[in-house]
From TrEMBL:
Keywords: DNA-binding. It holds the Pfam family PadR. It comes from Streptosporangium becharense. It comes from the Bacteria. This is DNA-binding PadR family transcriptional regulator. The keyword DNA-binding applies. GO terms for molecular function: DNA binding. Residues 10-84 form the Transcription regulator PadR N-terminal domain. Gene3D superfamilies: Winged helix-like DNA-binding domain superfamily/Winged helix DNA-binding domain. The keyword DNA-binding applies. InterPro entries: Metal_resp_DNA-bind_regulator, Tscrpt_reg_PadR_N, WH-like_DNA-bd_sf, WH_DNA-bd_sf.
Length: 108
């Protein structure tokens, strides 16, 4: 199952454990080195799709300073899909490096 980059990053953000929406936004920004910045609408749309696909689940809710926080975590299936996609992307990157005759980490 090939994932969109945003979905992949959301799953990767949740790989260390449950996070609430703002935590996912910050983790995705860090994982992408600032290249991907999710807005709330984009994030919750992605989480709804991922939950519908059985890849993430709501694992808790709380109210903090009058604001509702919902915590999300990977399901077992979500962890499997994330691992499979990671292997697929690593193979693709290795193929690209061979074709371009690049050495990993050298940029050329």
């Amino acid at each position: 199952m090939a994932l969109r980059e945003q979905s992949y990053l959301v799953l990767l953000a949740l790989s260390d454990g449950p996070l609430h929406g703002y935590g996912v936004i910050k983790a995705v920004q860090e994982l992408s080195e600032g290249r991907v910045r999710l807005g709330a609408g984009t994030l919750y749309g992605a989480l709804d799709r991922l939950a519908g696909d059985g890849l993430v689940a709501v694992v808790g809710e709380e109210v903090v300073d009058g604001r509702h926080r919902r915590y999300y975590d990977l399901t077992g299936h979500g962890r499997e899909v994330l691992a499979e996609e990671t292997v697929r992307l690593a193979r693709l990157a290795a193929t690209a490096q061979r074709r371009l005759r690049l050495q990993p980490g050298t940029g050329g």
